[in-house]
Amino acid sequence: MKTTDPLILFKDFSFQYKSQNAPTLHDINLSVNRGEKVLIIGPSGSGKSTLGSCLNGLIPFSFKGRMGGSAQINGKETSKTGLFPLSQVVGTVLQDTDCQFVGLSVAEDIAFALENSCIPQPEMREIVRKTSLLVDMDRFLDQAPFELSGGQKQRVSLAGVMVDDVDCLLFDEPLANLDPHTGRLAIELIDDIQKKTGKTVIIIEHRLEDVLHRPVNRIILMERGRIVSDTAPDELLASSLLSQKGIREPLYLTALKYAGCPVTGQDNPSSLTAMAKDRFKPALEEWTMREKVSPGTPEGEEILGIRDLSYSYDGDKPVLNDISFSLKKGEMISVLGKNGAGKSTLSKLIMGVITPDRGSISFMGGNLLEKPVNERSRSIGFVMQNPNHMISHSLIREEVGFGLDLRGTAEEERDRRVDDVLKLCGLYPFRNWPIRALSYGQRKRVTIASILVLEPELLILDEPTAGQDYRHYTEIMEFLTDLNSRTGLTIMMVTHDMHLALEYTDRAVVLSEGEMICDNSIARVFSDRDVIVKANLKETSLFTLAEQWDLGNPEDFINRFIAHEKMIRRETRGQQ
């Protein structure tokens, strides 16, 4: 049961990293009561991750700097408590769960904190058993953590911090590396744990609509190191703050606004099922029926052709089986599917990192399989999901210009192209920074810039929105869309982000268990329940809105939404 006894209390708190010349956090006044569930949102660089580090003790004990004001956890000043005592109050589940594993098996990993506390073996086994049951991982105790799926890894990390019986669970972007269905299960798990244990839960996350799949007590909105809003979800969603601060609102609310429906806090906008459909349905029906919208068929020459492509890592179980599809020059498509569906393997085959067991790949009329990796990279750019796997230099300018250096580009031309792409990717102010000083999302933009500067014909992006807030990935995608329309750059996005696919691609290739189960328009894919279930996707709130409110064919409704989005983006680009 919730009390008014604050577990977390910040008063006029500020923090400045030792290496920075200005504070990252300013005038933080925050109180979180025991048993509350709080969501912290904000654009990249807003200070939300730094605030999280202040909660779990990484600041000031691992990340040095100057603190001002008061920061209390469980009634004690964090600066006088110590990292280990704080870890027994606030347990952290990191965005990159692989960095959190220390044991060779799930059981060993869960037991790690207990071993450090010298808990007797019989008691330790019982605690591990009970905790693994709580997160539904009791059947995997003997398995290696790195053999698990993304969602299972997250459950193990959660169990590893829960064995200490911490008062507060802190989740740092828990959805970043999960497919849509698994992400929904993760939010349900967090909610179930909070209800069963009564623990305080703090979630730091970009994906607002996905987190609101289960209710939260409050949403903390941060910008430039300050708290700009601390309010109930309904109040925030009814305000204009989200659009002003570059945070993506739930799609169903966007659709209501497109239809001219004013939404107030009394309309319960944080929950589609709680909203009164009779109040909004007439306007939505009128908006949907204004004109019938159908996706166009791509025209032009084929740039990439995949024919009967198959591959197996072990020579036995196929990861991809008889995949066939093609891309027309100038298309932007999505490749969708759950973790392990074969999406990344497909990218590796196109880039030449691995060779198919059978099948063919053509590119611009030629046999791509006859070309070595370095020759393919002259025309096909590939941006990995994890930016740390691509970066090889310490400074931003060096990294972005590295490919041009390898090609022997003249210095003047190199500098011009590097500056142009840094400006387009929003990185020019940081051009002389060390890469280690950047956030995960900023590093992602560096890797995209390092490929775009080479001017490829086909660009493949593996999870382009991972670690990116809505404003920054919108800037990148608007840039890519503009580049696509001006130069005919063909773009293939391997992604879990259904919102990204909906907003920026007309077509999706969907993989499941190594099979291609769909190649169709985005609206058709996102209104096909069988495809959604098989591919571990989830129904968008547009589909739910159309179906639950009886707005006709969900595919027609989604097409109408897509057409309206494109119109607004064209108008916005025309005004810039």
Description:
The protein is α/β, with parallel strands linked by helices and 576 residues long. The protein is 39% helix and 21% strand. The strands form four sheets. Strands 6-7-8-3-9-10 form a six-stranded mixed sheet, sandwiched between helices. Helix 15 packs across helix 16 (411-424). It is globular. The N and C termini lie far apart (52 Å). The mean pLDDT is 88.
List the helices and strands and how they pair.
Blueprint: E1 6-17, E2 25-33, E3 37-41, H1 48-56, H2 58-61, E4 65-73, E5 76-77, H3 83-87, E6 90-93, H4 106-116, H5 121-134, H6 150-162, E7 168-172, H7 180-197, E8 200-204, H8 208-211, E9 218-223, E10 226-231, H9 233-238, H10 241-244, H11 251-258, H12 277-288, E11 302-311, E12 320-328, E13 332-336, H13 343-351, E14 358-363, E15 366-367, H14 373-376, E16 380-383, H15 396-406, H16 411-424, H17 440-452, E17 458-462, H18 470-487, E18 490-494, H19 498-504, E19 507-512, E20 515-521, H20 522-525, H21 529-534, H22 541-548, H23 554-575
Parallel strand pairs: 3-8, 3-9, 6-7, 7-8, 13-18, 13-19, 16-17, 17-18
Antiparallel strand pairs: 1-2, 1-4, 4-5, 9-10, 11-12, 11-14, 14-15, 19-20
